[in-house]
Structures
1.
Amino acid sequence: MSRAGRRRQRLRHGLGQAVLVGLTLLATAAILVPVVWMFSAAVRPIRELLTYPPKLIPDTVTVEYFLRILRQAKYQRFFANSAVLSLVSLGATLVLAALAGYGFSRFRMRGGKAMLVGILALLMLPRVTVIVPYFRLAHAWGVYDRLGGLILVNVAFLLPMATWLLKGYLDSVPVELEEAAMVDGCTRLRALWAIILPLAVPGLVGVGTFVFIGAWNEYLLAVVLTDTPSAQTLTVGLAAFFGEYVRDWNSIMALSTLTSVPLMLIFVFFQRWVVQGMTSGAVK
Amino acid sequence: MFAGSARGYLFVAPALAYLALMALYPLVSVVAMSFQDVAEGHWRFAGGRQYARALGDGLVWNSVRNTAIFTVASTALHLAVGLALALALNQTWFSRTLRNFVRGALILPWLFSTAASALMWALLYHPFGLFNYLWVGVLGRPAVIQFLGDPTTALAAIIAVNTWKSYPFYMVSLLGGLQGIPLELYDAAKVDGAGAWHRFRFVTLPQLRPVLVAISTIDVITSFGHVDLISMLTRGGPGVSTETVAYHVYKTALLDGNLPYGSAVSTLMLVILTMFTVVYLRLVTGRQRESW
């Protein structure tokens, strides 16, 4: 190919790339509109909201709405409940899923494949189909309107996904390491704890982020199984706030922002592992 | 390489016992409750009465119709948006950092709770919100659209929010699938003179097929069981124009307090979804056998 021809080809290639990148950036900007709108609505005074024409950049910036929410005992309680729910669910799910994932990965069990398929089937179970039995069981077991009850059912829905993903991750950790450790007199449980888990940290972080986000954002079970702010989470508080007759959009957007900030921080820190987990996990 | 099986059971037992108690047992009891009735606070056997009521109820068939629209539209849009963005992210960009940043930004909607997403969009849909400003103020149309308050637009408005909220999961899954396609296949196709469209049609799509089958099935099941957005944005309304089967279960069982009837509709949902799941498992296990 002549030099001019090659240059022309490179130019065309570069032009194609510029168009592609430009279009993707445009699409990204459009997709982020609701998020940007939420932030900007949360920090402007009420008279600057729902104006005609709408203003993207507010004239006055205020954090009053954030402070007002943060000072209220009810919302502090929602935050605390969401945090406890997510962290305890995370811990319980990871322990159960790591043990089960290790078992499925390292032992050839009779019925093992059937159990894994069963877990995969549960992964697909829609929450709404079991809200009736949960509602009755929660009353029968005395955990209705208790955070403990909510944790119990949340773990049931997070565990199948976590087990499946961790089993996949542990399959990629070589067996020889723990065999060597066990030859040296280590018990299997000790080998799992001291050798395998440290190697599985990226997988645990990815799955853990998934689990935390799932628990933090859960709404249906929380609205079915709780009744008072003592056990309600942020998602329920947010929906209830919205349902009230007078719509104080600034505060609604401030609360939405506040509930989302923890997840954004977590995601910024752990993005690599989450994306890794999502691209190599359940559907592969 | 593999140890004896007895100790394996010890590792998997806690998780399995937990799932048996907290997932299987409720599943069995929802089916049992669907054949019962409550009279003066006591549960008693009622045969197929709840099913007869459910199948003879026009509201159920209305919700089946809405569910079909919601599920098919959500799945199609998730896959279309997800695939388009995954393809763009899978190209060479002049700046890797920019590409990774955009990837992170595009995953962002997935992070928000459905509650927060519903509220963000409710503000945009507001009669004095951004969309109506564009509609009336920029396009010069005579009247605002009550996106969530008009039976002709409400379901579409909810589908739009659901598309926005959940496409990132499918985008990332498809990106993973794209990255797993061997580059030699594209080189070979180029040597054979295949243009961009032919490479997409005859290399990319066939290679993505397993991922597409898997995530579309996941998506159908997830969309079918979706309650959150509907209960927050429209509560099935206006009228029953956005009432889906899943929302119908929630409304009749929990809001109206008719637990046996809700159980029957739940069981009907499970029967329909089991048919989907069987197909899904057959496809997935068929593919996984080689790698196990």
2.
Amino acid sequence: MIHASSGVAIAVFLAFVGAVLAISFYLGGKAKSAQGYFAAGGGIHWAVNGIAFAGDYLSAASFLGICGMIAFFGYDGFLYSIGYLAGWIVALFIIAEPMKRLGRYTFADALDNKFNSRGIKLAAAISTLVVSCFYLIPQMVGAGALVTPLLGFPHWVGVLIVGCVVTLIVTTAGMVSTTWVQFIKGSALVALCTLMTVMILARGVRMPDGEAATALRRGVPASEVTGAPGAVVLPEEGGWAGKPFVRVRDEATGMVSVWRKSGEGMLDVAQTLTVMPDGRRLANGRPQGTGPGQGDLIPAGQAARLPGGVKETGPLGPVGFLQTMQDSEIVLWGNEKIVEADGGATTVYFQKPTTGKDFMAPGSSPTFRKVRSEKLGDKLDFLSLMLALFCGTASLPHILIRYYTVKDQISARKSTVVGIAAIGFFYVLTLYLGLGAMTSGTLDVTDSNMSAPLLARSFNELLFAIISAVAFTTVLGTVSGLIMAASGAVAHDLMTNYLKMKMDDARKVRAAKVAAVCVGALAIVLGILFAKMNVNFLVGWAFNIAASANLPSLVMLLFWKRTTKQGITAAIIVGMISSLTWILLSAQAFKDVYGLDPAGALVPFSQPAIVTIPLGFLVLVVVSLLTGRKEQLAEAAA
Amino acid sequence: MGGLDFKAPVTQEQEEAHVIAYNSRLGLALFAVYVLFYGGFMALSAFRPEVMGRPFMGGVNLSVVYGFALIVAALVLALLYLAASRKSPAGSAS
């Protein structure tokens, strides 16, 4: 869809982003003189740190991706909310305190502290790089999704802008993403989402009327469509053969409209987006644009039936809203890509009226639909996702760092509790935001990531601008943090510690900056490549890789005395490579990244964790036992 | 590059061995409770999806109630841990 921009929205957006950048530059400059960010740790109050936990953790993906997923598919998006929060339990009860006791900030440093092995340093640095990059992709995609409706740019321009701005910030200023900025962003995000939830409940759910209802008609008798004067039914040729679609050309205008067969002799309006061989785009048969003779896709997100057949529910309570959604029927959208005979491609978006009973339970999205089948093998994708989310949080290289910005274990525990409270509250809100977006009447059927900003726009432009600005600064903060972590892994862990390159501080900083530019460029390319994927799904993949590569080593290092350095190195490498390969060979990657037929995928489901986490543990134990015994023998012989 | 300074000195907290042992046992016990609760959610969703779709409390179905409960339970367990964990009497951080 093409989105119009408004002057007020842009002004509010620029003012907010500018203010946050200014604050962070100012505090960043101050932090540098005060022995740096981490050494200043003891000075931060646990409550502030707790909200900053939320600011750190609630990235663009949490906000945009989960809302979009719930808006498009229902309950399955909420599974991510549950899993992301549950991961904190692993962090709080198992990993964080022993790690803090080891006296190191990161996974790599903690391992390094105990074994001082070059192999571990290399493996940990590479795994940090890979996980950071995978975590970067959804942030970049999310940035594009924010800029598109706000400024009216195409998606790739948004990605390019964020990439360049952030790389510039990191390389020129070495921006320190300070606790206070994260605190401001975290509280602003939670406060705004609370406000939006109240507005959703106050609005209630209503049936579409007027233009919105007639534009997306359902159950039209086929004879009425095909028998209209000047209507010609096109033959089902090429990619259209055997599909449940009917194409009708109006002889007078030459426009082709597409309908979907729904039951005996009935047709529903479908929407199409065609990319012609010469690159021109047609939306619903007309050139995509806002000028005369041009057209665009129709905004979606309508209710098909409300409980009791009412037209409008009026204001609802938090429980009443959920009940209403459960007893309603909402029009969700499916899509199918069809290759045209002339080499162009058409994506058909078709209406799928879905009952609340269906979309309010696990298995509502196409990815996890199979959880409702009878076969055990079909359920593994779902189980694997829930495992990855549970284990992922504590394995993300940049998450545990905040645990060390307070002075002692008691403060750390207190801030975790504040963090869990804020994050948990936010995730409860995501269900309302997502379901609110589902019925907002403003959805873009081509991009689920835009659902939350477009929901805000359905209330008013100002709210939309503020929400976009808060989300955008979140992206900037997260992306610069990740790029710094990744460039640090290259300059510090790889070049200095592993390759033993002798570098003075100036050269080290220069190396880090060069690395930052490279990572930034890579992030831009990947962000454009993965544009059509739900950002939350991408974050899920990052959690899979992090959990597979890092969790076995972390847990065994802390709880198994016979762990050896070879065991850890092998577990990291095997966990990382196996999960990464699995993801790149999955049906989801085939469909959304390479544009291939998903049936050709080489692995049976898309979430690797259920296979690769146990694999990591197995490799660690086997290699540790083998190498451990060798060392014992060597000692005995000596 | 202040943010990358992972090697800055950390103020080590003095903790007594029995306090550490008590706290980590407590953590593991609470963790086990949550794993059971979370595992129950996974198992029900995967093997009894029809149960998850049924109205459970106040007309809201079990999957939503269970989901909210998992979020609340995480907070409750974290609060429990905060209340029940010991701190070393002799050594605080600074």
